[in-house]
Amino acid sequence: MKRTILHLDLDTFFVSCERLLDSKLNNKPVIVGGTGDRGVVSAASYETRAYGVHSGMPAKMARQLCPHAIFIKGNAGTYTKYSKLVTEILQSDVPVLEKASVDEFYADLSGMDKFFGCYKYATELRQRVIRESGLPISFGLSENKTVSKVATNEAKPNNQLKIETGTEKQFLAPLSIKKIPMVGEKTFRAFCNMGIKTVHTVQQMPVEMMTSVFGKNGRVIWQRSNGIDNTPIVEYHERKSISSERTYGRDTIDVTKIKTTLAAMAEDLAFQLRRGGKLASVVTVKIRYSDFQTYSKQIKIPYTSADHHLIPTVQELFNKLYDRRVLIRLVGVRFSGITSGTYQINLFDDEKRTVSLYSAMDKIRLRYGSRSVVRASALGEGARSVGNFTNPFNGEPPIVLAHRTQ
Q1: Is 108 annotated as a binding residue?
Q2: Has keyword rRNA-binding (predicted)?
Q3: Is residue 175 part of a domain?
């Protein structure tokens, strides 16, 4: 049976979400990401791309290229909500869905031509997403994932493109080799050094030459350049880890500040676990020094979503990890080994009031924002930019909770 693979991508997703919340941003140059000079561009509107701005670029450079752009820090909770909404729409309408990222999806429509017409079905699906979410979305349709993804990128912004079976090589040939998935900046520079800039040139090369230069990846790039990709759709499944990172505006050696940041991260991630009905069994802490040397340490623990178990574990890992006494640039926390479940009372360590306290705290956070109620250990300069700093109390600071378990 002929395969039919649909690739969908929400256009400038973070920017589009911000524009839903504030229509004044429409048709204006918008950049979402770190607002300081050491921040990174997470998403850039098409208006800024004309100036050379792109995601992954240092915010300082983006500001120099497009000084009139509107910089927005962004809110992960908002983007997660809209991503989940689009995921639910797609899951209800397609047989097999793969969620490649927060804003990118693949769907296997093989066999549906006989009953619906895949292109017509995909068009109606795209219109439904636009109608129900308010977000612009593009799609590419072909017989495999690579060609569909490239077609989506060619269709943008907010459009669609179908590549007929048998025309894959012809479609790819005039494009830059950089548009083939797997070809990053380093590989692209290697191609340029060889005098190769278009997919057509790679299509004419013997596969043996590609493997001699790029190893096993050379064969994959050659196949994809020729429109060959048998990669299956990996059905969507729930994430197995959640994480948070912070890059300081100025490298620091202030251990109190760093520990406050880590406590705020752990508290916010623990709330996310409980909100999603999840438990974590692995805790990882990462630090990056001012010389960009990066180290991490992890530990396996009993399944939990409780702050008073997770925060001390994070602090303990940091104490073991931080041994160079060098300025720190970045810190991060990750909870993994996630499974479904709710926090249970430990008969030896906890009291019923502990669980009741978490329930009360979470109700406040769900209503007013994840940073509306915090522990004293997670409050301070180091906690800035962690979690959702929605100000729910008409200008009042968040509730500070100093909680100690027995």
Answers
A1: no
A2: no
A3: yes
